[in-house]
């Protein structure tokens, strides 16, 4: 049975405890819950580690599933990248964590299953099980799964599932087993808002959760509307985790150690429109906005009209920051009459940042998962005259060792911008750039204060990115991408530290690090613009989702996240 990825719905949830369900995603986009016993083990490990920084090593934050279930011995969960890794084949799958109320189906150990072609029973994803249980409890014998994005009906009386298009039927059954684990929700005092599953929170960046931050991010508390009412979304459209790749790119295609995840919607239908309502709240319409002095040239930036909301004085223009787009190809430069600039040779980039080891250490290369004493796992897909399959090197700053051919394959799969990032500790060599599409960043300020920063005004950042075509650095080159929810507005206090963060965000914007093209965790939509591991405050006068103020730790947290992308105060001194 092929089922389309369901949208993530949210509800207001005030209980200090919830039931945690961990699930993995197959190649067709279907999510499968681990058993209650395995989830209990994963959750125990997760709770122990979630207060620590991720990205400090490949094994420090891995969960071996064989300790919970011997049949899962080949599998580990890598928390920094939110993936399940099969050690004998190298297959990587996305994983996620959902929270449910204690009275839900997972909280009572109820699982609904469907009969597959080989005669085995397969569990529905946890949100479907809970929805079925709720509908049956209301006396509905025929349950339409359309509100969750599925093309099926389930008949409780006949215990069958029917495909609404083909009318093909399968048997279903309701099983009662041990309840899924209860976990504690950590929230700041007085926080009773919406549990958030947006990309800003789900992103497992190199810095990881900073101690003291409210990590509502790792939760998703589903609520289910009545079938006659379509779900109403007010959240921004963000992305989801992808397979482990040091540059947040697709996995190295062709290599047995990291096959590309297929997160395509098997239905092939266009995602539902989320509407184009302005992101400025009407409460800002009375504010007297002051435009910052015009910054650098906006050449190459996409112009955008400010949506109705803040009043702008006639004739004034917000300060804009252009995107630093990829350099034109040598052919394009020649046609334009320019002098082609030589691109850095990949082999030379690897040699610039490594020192070759004559005797490889007795450990695995975490890129290909082969022994460093053996040939690189990418030797069959990466050809190099300068680097042999047995060559092993150590990065000069962090001293982590890899096959040099693996580093070459990783570099060639990225932007090829002359920079390199250690896949183990995330140390950056050179100047890292991202895959953010072309767009516009505008900066304004006004006098109203943010909660927790009553001694200063507010900086407003407006990002605007239009729909476009994916480039060679994106998951599906040549295919259109969507840009939902733009323009997006973000807020900083107009004090010394807030202005520092602003200048660093400008650097990150120029380096194309703020956004990327990926899969939205809010809608499941693929090939769409999503946030890229640098948190932004998108609410000004409330903090119901954790993306607003007051938040005394935010500025320090975002500085750490910027530093993880290679954007530090040193970058400002170089300008």
Automatic annotation (TrEMBL):
Please name the GO terms of the biological process aspect recorded for this protein, alphabetically.
Answer: Notch signaling pathway; protein ubiquitination
Q: In which pathway does it act?
A: Protein modification; protein ubiquitination
Where does the WWE domain start and stop, copy by copy?
8-97, 98-174
Q: Is Zinc-finger one of the keywords UniProt gives this record?
A: yes
Give the Enzyme Commission number.
2.3.2.27
Which regions are flagged for Low complexity bias?
A: 303-319
Any idea which UniProt keywords this protein has? Cytoplasm, Metal-binding, Notch signaling pathway, Repeat, Transferase, Zinc, Zinc-finger
Cite the Gene3D superfamilies for this sequence.
Answer: 3.30.390.130, 3.30.720.50, Zinc/RING finger domain, C3HC4 (zinc finger)
What one GO molecular function would you report for this record? Answer: ubiquitin protein ligase activity
Q: Which reaction does it catalyse?
A: S-ubiquitinyl-[E2 ubiquitin-conjugating enzyme]-L-cysteine + [acceptor protein]-L-lysine = [E2 ubiquitin-conjugating enzyme]-L-cysteine + N(6)-ubiquitinyl-[acceptor protein]-L-lysine
Q: What cellular-component terms does GO give this entry?
A: cytoplasm
Subcellular location, in the record's words?
Cytoplasm
Q: Where in this protein does the record put region Disordered?
A: 249-274, 290-324
By sequence similarity, the record places it as follows: Belongs to the Deltex family.
Q: Which protein are we looking at?
A: E3 ubiquitin-protein ligase
This protein's encoding gene: DTX2
């Amino acid at each position: 049975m092929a089922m389309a990825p369901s949208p993530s719905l949210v509800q207001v949830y005030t209980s200090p405890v919830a039931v945690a369900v961990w699930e993995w995603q197959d190649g067709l986009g279907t999510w499968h819950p681990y058993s209650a016993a395995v989830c209990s083990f994963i959750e125990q490990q997760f709770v122990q580690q979630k207060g620590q920084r991720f990205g400090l090593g490949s094994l420090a934050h891995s969960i071996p599933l064989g300790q919970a279930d011997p049949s899962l011995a080949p599998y580990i969960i890598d928390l920094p990248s939110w993936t399940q890794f099969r050690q004998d084949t190298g297959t990587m799958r996305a994983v996620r964590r959902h929270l449910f109320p204690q009275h839900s189906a997972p909280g009572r150990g109820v699982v609904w299953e469907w009969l597959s072609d080989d005669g085995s029973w397969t569990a529905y994803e946890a949100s479907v099980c809970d929805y079925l249980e709720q509908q049956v409890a209301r006396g509905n014998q025929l349950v339409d799964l359309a509100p969750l994005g599925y093309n099926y009906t389930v008949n409780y009386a006949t215990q069958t599932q029917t495909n609404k298009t083909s009318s093909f039927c399968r048997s279903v059954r309701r099983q009662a087993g041990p309840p899924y684990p209860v976990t504690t929700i950590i929230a700041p005092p007085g926080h009773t808002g919406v549990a958030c599953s947006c990309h800003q929170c789900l992103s497992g960046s190199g810095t990881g959760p900073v101690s003291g931050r409210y990590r509502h991010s790792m939760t998703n508390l589903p609520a289910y509307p009545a079938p006659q009412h379509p779900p109403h979304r007010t959240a921004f459209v963000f992305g989801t985790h992808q397979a482990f790749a040091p540059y947040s790119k697709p996995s190295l295609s062709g290599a047995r150690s990291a096959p590309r995840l297929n997160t395509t919607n098997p239905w092939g239908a266009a995602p539902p429109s989320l509407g184009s309502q302005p992101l400025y709240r009407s409460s800002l319409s009375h504010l007297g906005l002051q435009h910052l002095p015009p910054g650098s040239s906006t050449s190459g930036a996409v112009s955008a009209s400010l949506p109705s909301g803040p009043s702008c004085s006639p004739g004034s223009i917000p300060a804009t920051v252009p995107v630093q787009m990829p350099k034109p190809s040598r052919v394009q430069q020649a046609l334009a009459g320019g002098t082609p600039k030589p691109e850095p040779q990949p082999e030379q980039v690897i040699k610039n940042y490594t020192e070759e080891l004559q005797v490889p250490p007795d450990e695995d290369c975490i890129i290909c998962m082969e022994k460093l004493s053996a040939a690189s796992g990418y030797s069959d897909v990466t050809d190099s005259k300068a680097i042999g399959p047995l060559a092993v090197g150590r990065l000069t700053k962090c001293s982590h060792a890899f096959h040099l051919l693996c580093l070459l394959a990783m570099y060639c799969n990225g932007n090829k911008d002359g920079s390199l990032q250690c896949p183990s500790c995330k140390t950056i060599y050179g100047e890292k750039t991202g895959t953010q599409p072309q767009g516009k960043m505008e900066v304004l300020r006004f006098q109203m204060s943010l909660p927790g920063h009553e001694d200063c005004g507010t900086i407003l950042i407006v990002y605007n990115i239009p729909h476009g075509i994916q480039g060679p650095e994106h998951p599906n080159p040549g295919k259109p991408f969507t840009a939902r929810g733009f323009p997006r507005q973000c807020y900083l206090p107009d004090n010394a530290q807030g202005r520092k963060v602003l200048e660093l965000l400008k650097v990150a914007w120029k380096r194309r690090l703020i956004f990327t093209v990926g899969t939205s965790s809010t809608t499941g939509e693929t090939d769409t613009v999503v946030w890229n591991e640098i948190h932004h405050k998108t609410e000004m006068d409330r903090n119901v989702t954790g993306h607003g103020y007051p938040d005394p730790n935010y500025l320090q947290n975002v500085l750490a996240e910027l530093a993880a992308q290679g954007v530090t105060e040193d970058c400002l001194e170089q300008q």
